[in-house]
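The passage that follows is intended for readers who have already worked through the single-chain material. We present the inputs for a multi-component assembly, then the predicted structure in tokenized form, and finally a short commentary. You are encouraged to pause after the input and sketch how you expect the pieces to fit together before reading on.
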Amino acid sequence: MAEILIYGAVTSAIYAMLAVGFTLIFGVARILNLAHGSFYALGAYTAYVLTTVLHLPLLPSAVLAVLFVAGFGVGLERALVRPLRGSQIAVLMITLATSLVVEQVLFLTFGSEYRNVPSLASGKLTLLGVDISAQRLVTLGVSVTALSLLWLFIQRTRLGSAILAVSQDPEAAQYMGIPSDRVFATVMGLSAGLAALAAVLAAPFLTVQPGMGLLPMVKAFAIVIVGGLGSIPGSILGALLLGYSETIVAYLISTSWTELVSLVAVLLTLILRPAGLFGKRAAF
Amino acid sequence: MTPIRRVVGSLAWLALGATAGLTLGPAAAQNPPIRIGVPTAIQLQVGRDTTDSMQMAVDEINAKGGVLGRKLELVVADETENPETGINAIKKLTADEKVDVLVGGYTSGVTLAQLPHISRAKTIYLGVGAASPSITQRVKQDYDNYKYIFRVNPINAAHQARALADFISGFVMAEMGLKKIAIIGENAKWVQDLVPILKKGAVDAGADVRMSEFFDTQTSDFSPLLSKVKESEAQFLVVILSHGSSDVFVKQWYDARFPVPIGGIDVKSMDADFFKRVGGKSISEITINGSIRAPISPKTIPYWDAFVKKTGRGGPVYTGPGAYDAVYVYAEAVRRAKSTDPDAVIKELEKTDYVGALGRIQFDDTHDVKAGPGLVSFGFVQWQDKGERAIVWPKEMRSGKAILPPWLKK
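Having made your guess, compare it with the prediction:
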């Protein structure tokens, strides 16, 4: 039981970081960003290059990787998404194309082999009688901190209020003099940064290879559907639900069934409550 | 036809005629090349090392004048790990490229899907990557249609299971003194073929198999599985994976300082630079390995060194030596048959007795490579300090003393 509790929390934390970023973009900019997985992959590869190729110390590398990917997110919004934002399909296509390009560039530069990102914390700890690697606990701690900070940022700061305003009614916000383009860019940067942070934290115990972005993105998508597109509390709850259900299935049934959980969750949500747990309206 | 087009058209015919006239003389002596199709997963190391090794063999043979006065030539097609793409690769190579022979393969599921298409194209196929016994079983079931199929490498999953059972009884039980075994394997065709045989072999040898479970090849979190292994009180964990995430598995095993040593068939852990790529976390892992720089035959070390020199990589993965040998096996058969006619070449391939980088290659009556001492065999290789590798089993190949994971050392 304790194992399910602890390991489920770590899985949920990683999912939450991915899903919150994904849902944030949707909630604010009303776009489905299919390049979200590439933020995750780029985060891991940047950390790999900085630590293993350039031999920089770990902590600054992690910070640089997150900043770099956040910058990439802002650039992507500026250069490719903004001109096409009028059409949902165009945005869908351009972000999908971006994710394919990123994957191919990673493949051509680094090859298909797995890469290694060193752990921020080594060794193992015993918590409630469960052996767990220190890196996983760090992941849990950092992600809870990062998500709380994001929450405070949105609730307490001026820019945060602007984000909220745009998410509630983009046109009205624009009339009030809120620069919605800048808000979109900020949100894209935040979302990319969160995905990169998840990657930097999880890469030491998960995989690093060019296609690594796809599965997390599918999971983030599933969580966001379950939680309600655009709702941050919804995606955190969705992440907990999915993270724990997967862990429970893995422990009590079999690891070979875990990948099915998210699909079943999506299916049930779409049938029973198309708007998701916290969503206001069906997104599709 | 516009006048310009007509002029261009007649010029083209003129040029064609001229080249035909020019080449007629020497062309009579210069036969067209023998084309070797390579269906493999070119984006993966297994595929890359297949093509690079085959190119080495092709260059060597061409440097000596080719076969029957004909040069060899490779045509590569990406079969990925997806059966549908695999079938398209075969169609492209046989129908469009009209290759004389196919050498390649990695995923058993893909190869099995390709078989009917290979048979319909009546093209010889030398497998160098897929291990499922079902592949060559077809030859036995329906010789006339499937006689084109041969496997040079790897030793099939049933033989691998027996080798693994022998490792468990001789090494894990007798030498390490561990009787309680857990088996985990990825949910893939070759592992489904392998595990039942392995389990039976281990039980017959007196092992106490505490658990045996499959996991999805997409699994990214092994902690639940590892925790089940721990609960089962197993003392040694046999792991069988190829398509799954070898890196994630050893990382999580190492990070948790998991109190059970691991060994088995971990295909990616066969790579020369695997240790480096996982930050040394594969320390003490043992895996079957058919591709090691060891004097398995007089050709093994020269091949290995030439590969490293040519590619600048650490060494070939398991498909490498088999792919290299397969080109020679085919070339020899063509030479003996004095033709590339499939039926004549098949007769000669069946008589193959060739010493290559893999060992001594002979085919059994299912066209599968024979396994055993003196033929093709493999060692159990362990990652040791600083990424050194030592063969720890079988005894006659042993090159170093086995170690335990650092956290289990007494």
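Commentary: Residues 14-29 of chain B have pLDDT under 50 and may be disordered. Residues 344 and 359 of chain B are 25 Å apart (CA to CA). How closely did your sketch match?
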